[in-house]
Amino acid sequence: MARIESSINVTKSVGETFAFLTKRESHLNFIPRMVSLTQTSQGEFARVGGTSEGMLNYFGIKIPVKYEIMENMPDRSLAMNGAMPYVKFRDGYVLSKYNAGTEIKFWLELNLAGWPRIFSPFAGLIGKIHAWETLRNLKRELGG
After folding, report:
1. Total domain count for the chain?
2. Which pLDDT value is given to residue 113?
3. I want to staple 142 with a disulfide (CB 3.0 to 4.6 A). Which of 12, 15, 78, 85 is the partner?
4. Secondary element (H or E) of residue 135
5. Residue 97: enclosing H or E segment and its boundaries?
6. Is the pLDDT assigned to residue 144 strictly greater than 80?
């Protein structure tokens, strides 16, 4: 398992940042290579137990991804379990006030299964790239 943590500061308040993270439409704008995301459960998108299915596009290859919200602490943190073929992951966002804005700490845990385990030594690098892209996109969307 590879665990990655990284953070950025944005100009939006903690409340505005959390509200952005809990909207399905927002994820289409900041998750790298996310081309579709459909909520598959009833109720609020980011409620604990809420589920969704998405599609990632890596160099023309479509990869299905499933999510389940495992933590929602208003104005503090949002975390989810995810699954793609041969990859299970957990990731989340921890928010804290920083000057007039918000520090967003992103964390990601990757677990490879089956034949892709041969790429385990590269999981950390792949995770770091994903974290960097995610935070870059969040900074673009939320200012900073």
Report:
1. 1
2. 82
3. 12
4. helix 120-142
5. strand 87-98
6. no
**Can you give the pTM of this predicted structure?**
0.91
For residue 53, the enclosing domain spans 2-142
DSSP class per residue in 46-79: TSTT-EEEEEEEETTEEEEEEEEEEEEETTTEEE
Longest dimension (CA), the chain: 47
Report strand pairing: 87-98 vs 77-84. Answer: antiparallel
- Residue 117's pLDDT is 72
CATH number, residue 79: 3.30.530.20
pLDDT digits (tens, 9 = 90+) for 72-99: 999 999 999 999 998 999 999 999 999 9
Structure tokens at 66: 């499933």
DSSP string, 4-54: EEEEEEESS-HHHHHHHHT-HHHHHHHSTTEEEEEE-SSS-TTSTT-EEEE
The alpha carbon of 7 is separated from its chain's Cα centroid by a whole number of angstroms, namely 13
Retrieve residue 37's tokens.
Answer: 């995301």
Record the tokens describing residue 80, joined without a space: 């989810």
